[in-house]
Amino acid sequence: DDLIVMVNGMGATPLSELNIVAKYVAEYMDKNDKTVAQWLVGDYMTALDMQGFSLTLVPNSEAILTAINTPTSSHYFN
Fold first, then answer.
1. Contact 7, 18 (CB under 8 A)
2. Which of 3, 12, 41, 43 has its CA 20 to 30 A from that of 50?
3. Where are the domains of the chain?
4. What burial class does residue 11 get, using C-beta atoms within 10 Å of its C-beta: 0-12 exposed, 13-18 middle, 19+ buried?
């Protein structure tokens, strides 16, 4: 069961704290025999410098990986 995992900061949460969340998610995945095809950790969709994070788990597929890794000119997703 490969997954794509996004730990998205809401704007005021430091990257170091988002990485702590990612560490706990990775530990959970290991305990449950899940593998992560790709990690996305950072501020992707913020909410006016709000504290906190969102966690998104998506089943891995070639189409989704291609879309995520395709170059874009967006300021917010690169």
1. yes
2. 3
3. 2-69
4. middle
pTM greater than 0.70 (yes/no) = yes
Q: Is the CB of residue 44 less than 8 Å from the CB of residue 75?
A: no
Residues of the chain with pLDDT under 50: none
Backbone angles phi, psi at 3, to 5 degrees: -130, 155
19-52 CB burial, b ≥16 within 10 A, e <16 = eebbeebeeebeeeeeebbeeebebeeeeeeeee
At 18, list the tokens. 């988002």
- Where does 2-69 sit in CATH, by number? 3.30.1180.20
